[in-house]
Amino acid sequence: MSTTHTARNGPLSGVRVVELAGIGPGPFAAMLLADLGADVVRVDRPGGAGIGIDPARDLTNRNKRSVLVDLKAEDGPATVLDLVERTDILLEGYRPGVAERLGVGPEACLARNPRLVYGRMTGWGQDGPLAPTAGHDIGYIAITGALGMFGPDPDGPPTIPANLVGDYAGGSLYLVIGVLAALQHARTHGEGQVVDAAIVDGTAHLTTMIHGMLAAGGWQDRRGVNLLDGGCPFYGVYETSDGGHMAVGALEERFYAEFVRLLGVEDAAARHDLGRWPELRRAVADRFRSRTREEWSSLFEGTDACVAPVLSLREAPAHPHLAARATFTERDGIAQPAPAPRFSATPGTLRTGPALPGADTAEVARDWAVPALKTQESEA
Fold first, then answer.
1. pTM of the model
2. Given a cut of 80, is residue 118 above it in pLDDT?
3. Catalytic residue selected from 167, 201, 229, 360
4. 136 flagged as catalytic
């Protein structure tokens, strides 16, 4: 595996991206573009982002290069605009209006490069009553109805799904979809544009199927009572005798039949009688508590019962299926997810570890022909 930045791989090879340093969904979106082969230059600020993580272990900055530019310095905005002139995509995650005040907003950037795709990552979006206010993942998914769906108890509080649903699914992935779609348009028509990727919009969009089920009467507007939210006894998580857990997703008839046969609860197979679901849940729970997680994993492995062990983050890389597919990889002693998805002709690769702030300033100044970067580096 090449570790040099000159060995470019992936379907986005040749695409240039400028990332104005931030935290959370913006850096993850830029990492995904970098994993797919884009030349991502992260514009770090002197003093760092202040997120309290060792830059050498910030995996969202892998496959990137970093330059130091002080946007509040007199020549800072002009230096960024020099980069903008040479790039395809710019990503920023400031509050609305901040980039404009710094002199690197959409108007200034598109004036310099009319084909530019200007990607904006925020929680609330660029407009609306909450746009200027602070926020985090939990608040964004709360108002979209998504948070209210998580949790097994309809009378208890929702379960917090880390920050995967809002920041990364509703945020980063929609930003990437947006800028790549806009890049296609720019290359076809020569016209750049602004992509307003709001976590509230993306998260709401993720619930489309559930809204359809709600409209059709197939979903109740409360958690813990539906087919996919823990209300169903054959779509849930059960404790094993050693304190582990097994995940069950035996929704279809044939998979359910295999599940109850292997579990040994045929007598309690009240699949279609919702009134007997509590009875079925107790029977399933009692059976799972009779063996260890490893014993159940061995029993269900290779079957169509749709049952899997619930693994921790440290356990996951060793799972035989994930190991066979190299779903996780290791670099510099750090286990991490490998680039995804996979491409037959232009595979993405893990080329470099996390970019250290400013470490690549001279190199990017040369490669992108932006001599002003060297001035910024010496002033930093």
1. 0.93
2. yes
3. 167
4. yes
Radius of gyration over every alpha carbon of the chain, rounded to an integer in angstroms: 24
- Sheet of 307-309: strand order equals 235-239, 245-249, 307-309
Residue 154 DSSP symbol:
T
CA 287 to chain centre: 36
Q: Per-residue pLDDT for 52 more than 80?
A: no
DSSP string, 159-181: PP-TTIIIIIIIIIHHHHHHHHH
**CA 153 to chain CA centroid, nearest Å:** 27
From 5, 136, 185, 319, the catalytic residue:
136
Looking up tokens 């169509």 gives 304
| Catalytic residue flag (residue 167) | yes
Q: Is 78 helix (H, G, I), strand (E, B) or coil?
A: helix
Is the preceding omega at residue 341 within 30 degrees of 0, hence cis? yes
Q: Are 200 and 143 in contact (CB under 8 A)?
A: yes
Q: What's the chain's average pLDDT? A: 93
The span from the CA of 329 to the CA of 338, in Å, is 6
Structure tokens at 341: 């998805």
